[in-house]
Write a structure and sequence with these properties.
By secondary structure, this protein is an alpha/beta fold. It contains nine helices and 18 strands. The protein has a seven-stranded mixed beta sheet. A six-stranded mixed beta sheet has the order 9-8-7-15-16-17. A three-stranded antiparallel beta sheet has the order 1-2-3, with no helix packed on it.
Amino acid sequence: MIKTNAILFATLFAFCIGQNAEPNKFLKKDPAEPTVVDGPYVLYRNDSVFVKYIEDNSGTKSVKTDSTSAAMKNNITLQINTDIPGKTFAVQLKQKLSEEKSEYKGIKKMLVMSDIEGNFGAFRKLLQGNGVIDENFNWTFGKDHLVLVGDFVDRGTMVTEVLWLIYSLEEKAKAAGGYVHYILGNHEIMNMSNELDYVQERYIQHAQLMNKPYMQLFGPNSEIGRWLATKNVIERVGNTLFMHGGVSSYLNNLNISLKELNEITRPFYTDTTYRYKDDRLNLIYSDFGPFWYRNYYKEPRAGLQQIDSTLDIYNVRSITTGHTIIANEIRSLYNGKVYNVDVHHAEGRSEALLIDDGKFWRVNTTGEKLDIRPI
């Protein structure tokens, strides 16, 4: 479990609508006022949008709700808490959500990480230390790409904040000519499909306060749920293939394109029946699918022939995954053809993978480049 200090601090939540908005309404914090400890959650019902956040008033939690018509959603500005007391960042809701492409060729420089698991502090430090964002959470990575290889939810206590940061950085990156790739891991899909074994109890309690099953916070009537539903489970970025778990020999045998793999998988993120008309989905959603597979690192280990087959099928030079911690640092395997980026963020051992013009380094929260040792 991720251990964090309990942080209670004031947050700005500006909910400005039309020309009569009051942008400074929440700027002055009265010590007697409640403190925001989670949220916001943006939910839709009929033609209305509701913004809910959890407040704490001397140990008693309650729900604060603002609402407006869905047609006015572009006037909503959210302020999101961070791990720094008193520090927030602003988020504008996206005008349109579109499904991600599966291949992005010609990308030379990218920073890659996985398995943040609600640890906002580790996420922030890696991004700031490696020049992806500044102290005000603005994109500073230019035309380069940030690749997030799943499991940014569960276990930790700042899941909501982590998700909103990724959400906000996508638009900022695009405006600069860069890009953010958020590839789903097994834990994102677990949250969307009501498998909640690793969800922090505080989030279950907060859902109950809002009179919502937790799954609905990641469902089609929530902004976060709609956004996650546009994401892929596997992508090619540059000459590297990214997924959370790996590509099994069984998946190789399907000889399925990345585009088709993502297209047939996406509609079932929120499925709880496990009944698929397409038999290929029984494999994709099993332990041998791209977001659950572990046999690059666990017995029985995949052979080099299997790795080479994947590289040939998808015309890439390397594979990068998270999902399975194998060391206290990022490592390479299979003669430099596979990179594992899952590390102990919760223990303060955060690293990311830097790929720059075909060269690979592991980098820490200060941006120091370090050699990657093979296994």
